[in-house]
Amino acid sequence: MATKTKKITIESLIAKYMDYVLEHEMIPKSIYKFCKVAEIKEEDFYLFYGSLASLQKGIWKQFFTNTMHVMEKNEEFDDFSNKDKMLTFFFTFFEILTLNRSYVLFVLEQEKNPMKNLEQLKELRKDIKHFAKDLIEDGNAEKNSRITKHSPQLFSEGAWLQYMFILRFWMKDDSARFEKTDMAIEKSVNTIFDVFDNTPLENILDFGKFLYKESFA
């Protein structure tokens, strides 16, 4: 009697890919090679992704999706302040990254050119910026004065820069339970919200330099 083939899911496909990368210490040379080693049909791969590059981006998108699912399980999350929502997002996201640390470190350090390594974060960048933009738009809806409203575009870009700096910090963090990263998250989020709450946007001429200075002070 023939053995029934287990149905592939996006989660199982991602798990098999990450296992392949860590076991072979390399990115698969082709979809054919990956599918053969992972014992899945090539046609099943194409149900979810059109290329290995799109799969790599999809893994980071899945990290984001899992983060949102964890946060949504907290019945009190909707009542959090914007700052606490952002704190919760970063804490949860980096907890998920820590569960997959070996894979994350490998794929972010495989190329000598950092820009090539960051190519896989394109979809994640959109998701994080959208999350941050929604936070600010919700906050602005509660404000009557245009002067006190914040720029969703500026804040969302700042949230992405903040994520990138925390990611770099986390990659180099060798503290137990990555406690230094937790401290960096709390300090940077508090600092960013203090600036947005107390500084007119017209006075923030170079937000990137400010964020860099505060994140690594």
Account of the 3D structure:
The protein is mainly α and 217 residues long. It has two domains: 1-50, no CATH class; 51-215. It is built from eleven helices and no strands. Helix 5 runs antiparallel to helix 10 (179-198). The chain is globular. The N and C termini lie far apart (65 Å).
Sum this structure up briefly.
With 217 residues, this protein is mainly alpha-helical. It has helices spanning 10-24, 31-38, 42-45, 52-72, 82-99, 101-109, 114-118, 122-141, 152-172, 179-198, 207-215. It has two domains: 1-50, no CATH class; 51-215.
Architecture blueprint of SSEs:
Layout: H1 10-24, H2 31-38, H3 42-45, H4 52-72, H5 82-99, H6 101-109, H7 114-118, H8 122-141, H9 152-172, H10 179-198, H11 207-215
Helix pairs in contact: 4-5, 4-8, 5-10, 8-9, 9-10, 9-11
* Low-confidence blocks of residues: 201-205
DSSP strand count:
0
Number of domains: 2
The rounded distance between the terminal residues' Cα atoms is 65 Å
The run of helices and strands is HHHHHHHHHHH
Biggest sheet overview? none
Helix content: 55-70%
**Alpha plus pi helix count:** 11
Q: What is the mean predicted local confidence, pLDDT?
A: 86
What class, by secondary structure content?
mainly alpha
The best one-word shape is globular
Strand content: under 5%
Multimeric organization: single chain
